[in-house]
Design a protein that fits this description.
The protein is of the alpha+beta class. It folds into two domains: 61 residues; 88 residues, 2-Layer Sandwich (Alpha-Beta Plaits), CATH 3.30.70.260. The protein has four helices and four strands; from the N terminus they run H-H-E-E-H-E-E-H. It has a four-stranded antiparallel β-sheet with strand order 1-2-4-3, covered by helices on one side.
Length: 156
């Protein structure tokens, strides 16, 4: 096969790939390229729309940062992680009061309140608690404590 035939075959193969990727039903080169151009335009519009949606959601998130709370069940207690994207003076006290109400003793904890609020705590059920609480109850109680704290901090 000559060099010219090889180049022709390569172009033909690339056009077939382009036709396949763009879902074009065109047969000639010009129509395939026009379809590909339209397809690229549609993709650009989708990207712009998604970027706008992401920008809008980031603005609403930064104006009203939601807490991230995870609770894992351990052999004797729970691993509780709380994260908020802002500094939250007084929130630690509210969460610790909630632990006390639930009958959880804080066995170990790490807290950071510098630029954002982070808490990682291991809470074990104390001997006086016969209820038998689960991780979902702990998570809901922590979220309620954050909600109460948020309402009182807005009033100040």
């Amino acid at each position: 096969m000559s060099s010219r035939d090889q180049k022709k075959a390569a172009v033909y193969q690339k056009l077939r790939q382009l036709r396949s990727v763009t879902n074009s039903s065109a047969v000639n080169k010009t129509s395939i390229i026009v379809d590909a151009s339209r397809y690229i335009g549609e993709l650009k519009e989708k990207v712009d729309k998604l970027n706008q949606e992401i920008g809008t959601s980031q603005i609403s998130t930064s104006q009203n940062p939601l807490p991230m709370v995870t609770v894992e069940t351990l052999e004797k207690g729970f691993l509780i992680n709380v994260f908020l994207e802002k500094n939250c003076p007084g929130l630690l006290v509210s969460i610790l009061e909630t632990f006390e109400e639930l009958g959880l003793d804080v066995l170990d904890a790490r807290v950071s309140c510098e630029d954002n609020f982070q808490l990682e705590a291991i809470g074990g059920e104390n001997q006086g608690n016969a209820e038998g609480i689960d991780s979902q109850m702990v998570k809901q109680a922590v979220l309620q404590a954050i909600g109460k704290w948020s309402k009182t901090s807005e009033q100040d």
